[in-house]
């Protein structure tokens, strides 16, 4: 659905976050005299309210009311509002049309060449890495989507390639034809939003069905993706022999050669290896780098100074970011972590000894059993759990027999957790915030959670 289809329609914007505000800006600039309504279940930022034209714009804060919304022709859904909700299902049954900021952008830019990147974890770093490497190779690139700047706010940008990070929230009803799709991994997340794990996986994998011509890049080391695409032709895999593979602190490729017996073999002289820059710690980031390098090769793009290009990459904030040291203790902000799998990856990267781990948040029904079992033998020095899923996490840890030297402690908030972590942390130890859960409703977003962690640590 393009903007012109909204000119004479009664339009309601659902959500007043970054996407909702970007939709409002575009509609207001195109149709200065059009009446617009915004509906937000969370308080609206005061600075945004100040720019509204209250003669033309009305806003409503509180639960979505199907009776009120039924007066409109088109509802523009922000990504955070699930189409699986009963209110939206009821409105759809009445014949109301739905669209989203992502769908509008793709409809408005049918000629744009797009690289769409998704996965349960790592998609932001992979998107940023891909855009960085392409730019360093001289490709006019724009990075947009779920990572920072909404696509609609890139109006007027002339890019050769668009690198777009997409969440499952955006993919669930996406109408687009990407040129290249990258899928990094697939594990359970956002079950509350998608109602169940099956819907989540189907929505995530839906992106692969949208790519024409089979230009799909996928992670061969992810069992779920292997099962899904093993019979699909023309998938370009990374993390398999002959392609870029992830090591602990490097990416490497052992090019297949034909041996004297006519069999494919690996030769030490046919290897290439790139060491990780300091801003990309751990094997999970090497997975992201392998994906980004594979995209560049798919496009036929090479960077003559690849090591220098990687060295200039700045890691994204709140992703295993060392934010400082105080009284001999390091503080690491991994606030982006929203699943047990991501907590496990964080511990594998920084180690377990002398680590005080702070985790917990909104309970989305995820199972912590596998995580608990993974740290039974290698256990952090201490674990501090936070509401709301603190009892569930603690029960899983106890059932698995996890017994940290510094104990397992449930505390009522992040401030208290940081203060107690400072008491528990051994000399030359580390305090790691890796929640494994969403920031809502205790924080505005994961960035707010990370900022508060820094503030409570006194850094």
What does this protein look like?
The chain has 3 domains: 3-105, NAD(P)-binding Rossmann-like Domain (Rossmann fold); 109-311, 3-Layer(aba) Sandwich (UDP-N-acetylmuramoyl-L-alanine:D-glutamate ligase); 321-457, Alpha-Beta Complex (Protein-Tyrosine Phosphatase, Chain A), CATH 3.90.190.20. Helices cover 34% and strands 22% of the residues. The chain has helices at residues 18-30, 46-51, 66-69, 86-93, 101-108, 123-136, 168-171, 191-194, 197-210, 223-229, 283-298, 306-311, 340-350, 369-374, 390-399, 414-424, 446-457, and strands at 11-14, 36-40, 57-61, 74-77, 97-100, 114-118, 141-145, 161-165, 180-183, 216-219, 235-238, 245-246, 250-258, 264-275, 321-326, 329-333, 355-359, 382-385, 408-410, 430-433. Strands 7-8-6-9-10-11 form a 6-stranded parallel sheet, with helices on both faces. A 6-stranded mixed sheet has the order 15-16-20-17-18-19, sandwiched between helices. Strand 1, helix 1 and strand 2 (36-40) form a beta-alpha-beta unit. Helix 16 (414-424) crosses helix 17. The chain is globular and about 65 Å long. The model is unreliable at 258-271 (pLDDT under 50).
